[in-house]
């Protein structure tokens, strides 16, 4: 009876896993088929050809290389800057008696919970006003500004709960707040920083809405909006679109595989109360 | 973008009275002031100030070239009679119920099935979780291939003899909205599953043991032990789902742009096309304010919950 149930469980779960991995595998396979093969046998058929030329087309003709560079130019500074700013704010708010610290923290978190729609028009107008419109700087700035509240809130929870004794020892040794932050608190916050780093990397890298709000020129677009443009450029070349899709997915998959544990624990932060 | 639950790590908290607050810092060092003010200023410039402007713009008529002209509540009266807006509002509610409801049911169900460590479990979890790391645009393109005429969906239907159901899934106003919800669910279920897996792991096994001793069967233990113990996770999941639903934009924009004939239009996509394609910035701001008002209750609930524990 239990063996039957175990068998049924595995059969059922294998079907579910297939439902989740099947479409992905299908796209990967399609990215290696030739245009003639798809034209002759249809998108739904099994492959009758193998080529990697699709990747060359997406990479150079489709501008994915430039788009990936743009994505990195935005994502890496945004992640670093967000974490630095959030860490210093969380440190001051969590470890010192700053007046109105709870109100400040509450406001900052509330800002992150706002629906971005309310910000789109003012942010695009403000970036025009400051001359940042259609530059990667605008995208970096808005990504940092919008993400800060949440990162600060999470790091605040971590830093506040660190035992007081280590900080007192540092004070007795004559360390000022700057040194306490850099030498004592920050190293202890590393796991939280890693989790937030992995999460924010995927969020910022995967973003579409902010990019199409503050950018206009095609060759400035990061990978996510560029993928939509690729779809317009290679309308019925499903193999090239598939190759572009794979290229756009690889960086976040790599970050996930590298930081798997941090990533999942980051997602689960707070689900456990 | 997805928002994750806040960190409330009660287990490490010191008893009240020995909170880790510095008493020595009567005069705040300028460094600490800068530590708070600089990030706060950045968020003010890019979030708080724009948000206030957004409310103001919703009371104006504005094409982005001439200065905005104050017109009172005219945009809102126009919204009330706008059938596209009403359709988008209805679709947003459908989205919330179907996308939200099914991702909770699916995610919780999968978490229950996959909570016990056994052979193969890591693989199944990884399979369900994989799409979570993809962008919604990648997800959309994966599914676009699936929905293509003669694509995988049609092939499957033909294989089981249901070819009369075949239709242009994304181009048919009857099916477009649901054809967009499905990929969104595909990506969200793994995420909700991870939240619930973490919650299930935190339940004290002794509770289940005690219930079993009292003769409770699996079903009773699920409803009397597991579900009540997950109250905290449920609150988090609920907030995340509502906020995510109201924000949903990428997947609709990549698959249908709200069409055909606005049949898959959500408030978020209608707001975007009104503002940036029809260049009716005042009217678009009014739609954004409606989205904000819909999200407000959840945002407040989330904030209250996040800060309640600090109130001891």
Topology readout:
The complex is a heterodimer of chains A (about 270) and B (about 300).
Chain A: H1 2-30, H2 35-41, H3 53-61, H4 64-95, H5 101-113, H6 117-129, H7 136-160, H8 164-172, H9 177-188, H10 190-206, H11 209-214, H12 223-233, H13 238-258, H14 260-268
Chain B: H1 30-57, E1 60-61, E2 69-70, H2 74-80, H3 83-113, H4 121-129, H5 136-147, H6 152-159, H7 176-201, H8 205-213, H9 218-229, H10 231-247, H11 250-255, H12 267-276, H13 281-308
Antiparallel strand pairs in B: 1-2
Summarize the structure in short.
The complex is a heterodimer of chains A (273) and B (312). Chain A has helices at 2-30, 35-41, 53-61, 64-95, 101-113, 117-129, 136-160, 164-172, 177-188, 190-206, 209-214, 223-233, 238-258, 260-268. By secondary structure, chain A is mostly helical.
Description:
The complex is a heterodimer of chains A (273) and B (312). Chain A is built from 14 helices and no strands. Chain A starts with a helix and ends in a 5-residue tail after the last helix. Chain A has 273 residues and is mainly alpha-helical. Helices cover 78% and strands 0% of the residues of chain A. Chain B has 312 residues and is an all-alpha fold. Helices cover 65% and strands 1% of the residues of chain B. Chain B has 13 helices and two strands, in the order αββαααααααααααα. Chain B has helices spanning 30-57, 74-80, 83-113, 121-129, 136-147, 152-159, 176-201, 205-213, 218-229, 231-247, 250-255, 267-276, 281-308, and strands at 60-61, 69-70. In chain B, α3 (83-113) packs antiparallel against α10, α7 packs antiparallel against α10 and α8 runs antiparallel to α9. The chains are: A mainly alpha (273), B mainly alpha (312). At the A-B interface, α1, α4, α5, α6 and α7 of A face α1, α4, α5, α6 and α7 of B.
Number of helices of chain A: 14
User: In terms of per-residue confidence, which ranges of chain A show pLDDT below 50 for 5 or more consecutive residues?
Assistant: none
Strand content of chain A: under 5%
Distance between the termini of chain B: 33 Å
Radius of gyration of chain A: 23 Å
- Overall average pLDDT of chain B: 85
N-to-C order of helices and strands of chain A: HHHHHHHHHHHHHH
Distance between the termini of chain A: 37 Å
Given helix and strand content, the structural type of chain A is: mainly alpha
- From the spread of the alpha carbons, the general shape of chain A counts as globular
Residues in helix, % of chain A: over 70%
Uncertain regions spanning at least 5 consecutive residues of chain B? 1-25
What is the subunit organization of this protein? heterodimer
What percent of residues of chain B are in strands?
under 5%
Q: Would you list the SSEs of chain B in sequence order as H and E?
A: HEEHHHHHHHHHHHH
What's the total helix number of chain B?
A: 13
Report the major sheet of chain A. Answer: none
Give me the Rg of chain B, rounded.
24 Å
Strand order of the largest sheet of chain B: 1-2
